[in-house]
Amino acid sequence: xxxxxxxxxxxxxxxxxxxxxxxxxxxxxxxxxxxxxxxxxxxxxxxxxxxxxxxxxxxxxxxxxxxxxxxxxxxxxxxxxxxxxxxxxxxxxxxxxxxxxxxxxxxxxxxxxxxxxxxxxxxxxxxxxxxxxxxxxxxxxxxxxxxxxxxxxxxxxxxxxxxxxxxxxxxxxxxxxxxxxxxxxxxxxxxxxxxxxxxxxxxxxxxxxxxxxxxxxxxxxxxxxxxxxxxxxxxxxxxxxxxxxxxxxxxxxxxxxxxxxxxxxxxxxxxxxxxxxxxxxxxxxxxxxxxxxxxxxxxxxxxxxxxxxxxxxxxxxxxxxxxxxxxxxxxxxxxxxxxxxxxxxxxxxxxxxxxxxxxxxxxxxxxxxxxxxxxxxxxxxxxxxxxxxxxxxxxxxxxxxxxxxxxxxxxxxxxxxxxxxxxxxxxxxxxxxxxxxxxxxxxxxxxxxxxxxxxxxxxxxxxxxxxxxxxxxxxxxxxxxxx
Length: 483
Prior knowledge:
This protein is an alpha+beta fold. The chain contains 13 helices and 19 strands. Strands 9, 12, 15, 16, 17, 18 and 19 form a seven-stranded mixed beta sheet that branches. Strands 1-8-6-3 form a four-stranded antiparallel beta sheet, with no helix packed on it.
């Protein structure tokens, strides 16, 4: 008996997913719970297990295709069953049809009626009229005027205002609605390009850019009559169209992966949102290095996890976050949200991108608990076994570029957090030390840099430096309980 494989919902706000790779071919035998394909969503990349044991008899959705949740993407039959050829062609239309149906049905109903009545004889005649409704999309690059046109009739057809608002909420994610609210945008005015006309982050960013470009000429036309003309260098934003990139036959052009697109969007969003400032401190890890050398073998044998520098850094940051609650906070419009719990994000570099799993309630964990949690999350991130809720809800993040040899960096703050701590490489260096009598001498110490990028809208430089001084003092003291 055939079993359909569906695109799962990997979180509350997830409406679609992209099949990045089929791990099985048509005709391959599969075991129950064996990974059968990989997906990428706005939240997480994951391997999807087979719901039953049998044979993969049909792949309905090819690699690289984005479909809505609950879409049938393949079929598993009984062991030894042969692939069905006919149904395999059926799935190709549904993604395109479902995406275009909401826009195509309204204009197409009246259009064919007029040409059919006027010239029934020549079949080519209806083709040009069928495209006559398409001139309206041509002016759509204009920022505001075209978008409201399709949405207003919907208000008349949809009935009550509440039903329209609910429909709009379904067409956008919470992040998109927040951007719209902060920029005084009516989401109904933004044309969605996502599945079922869903408004994506790219849609709303494009809308904002178009609005800026449209505003620039109007300002320049009135500029001669106004005094503050010098401060209006905004027409410089007009060169929004990027120059064409010359591509030779020796260049390779590859489409961005889903995780690369998401990373790009989030980084641009953060730079637009937060006032980034970075402060750098040098930390003496010599005492922690001695603790590690003394206990790392017994720690690994007893607990099954390695004793690295990271749990000590996590523990020190958590202690400082309790002292400086503004660093463990978020900005919501004109309000400040102080988070009572500390959910620690830890950036993990993958071969295909970057992901930030979260250690929930990190302030309740010991050095051992932090070591276990960090190694478990990193391992499952690399094997695509993270759950969506495990990469959400972070209140403060630590990233460790030092593992690749970087002295320090200026990391970008993950929204909606207000700070991120970057860990530089930890190594032995010559340094001036003083003996008990105050005499200076050269000594060898284990040193490294910590860099804190913080949002200056909320955190002042003095508070950021006090926070870092606290982290530094805790690390250099070497007073940690390994339990």
